[in-house]
Amino acid sequence: MTSFLGAPIVVRGEVFGDIYLTEKRGAPEFEERDERDVTVLAGQAGIAIENARLYQEINRLAVLEDRERIAKELHDGVIQALFAVGMGLQGASLMSEEEELATRIEGAVNDIDRVIRDLRNYIFGLRPGILADRQLDEALRHLGDEFQQKTGVITVVDVDPTVASELTPAATDILQLTREALSNVGRHAQAATCRVSLYRSDDRLMLEVDDDGRGFDPDTSRRGDGLTNLEARVRALGGTFSVASAPGKGTTITVALSP
Hints:
single chain; alpha+beta; Heat Shock Protein 90; 2 domains; five-stranded mixed sheet; two-stranded antiparallel sheet; 6 helices; elongated
């Protein structure tokens, strides 16, 4: 290399990248005019990048607004209607003098309760409230604190902020994956401690939730809806999903995503 010219691409006062030119044709070195041209080009590139980011942010806010509307309609409409039906059925069960009929009604009420829980879980996915004013790493720590308070399971959250920043476009999905994994720990693991980790391994971004609970044999145990839903969500993100566990040895759920 006999000649070199570089200029920074600045976005919101921070250097986003650089433009480098080498080996000027027809001359031994770059001139002041070349420097001015590259500086102008770098400025235009910065404006283009900022415009693209603003456009993405506008689209993201529009999607969040639509999700909020759907979530509100589900909560205030469908869930309240189902709750009223369940209350009515419970009243009918108490009035019934036939034990078999009362049992069947109670079964129907339990089914309605399950549907309500599923809808609420879906609403949590539509309305990631703890992400409203937080970055992903802070939201994950908040989720861990909340889980520990509710379950008594000591929860450690170890997040690489650089990886969290890279996963910002998928923050809602990452948060929901973590919530579902922690929910499995709370329901099934009988654990004393668990850890949520977000880190980089080679060229993959890794989300890991492990616990010191009772564990199970993945080869012989029937997989429940929780793990099935987790795997389906990870595949939708284009990632890979794995479960490592053994009786008495705890469980580790690992999600690997491309940057």
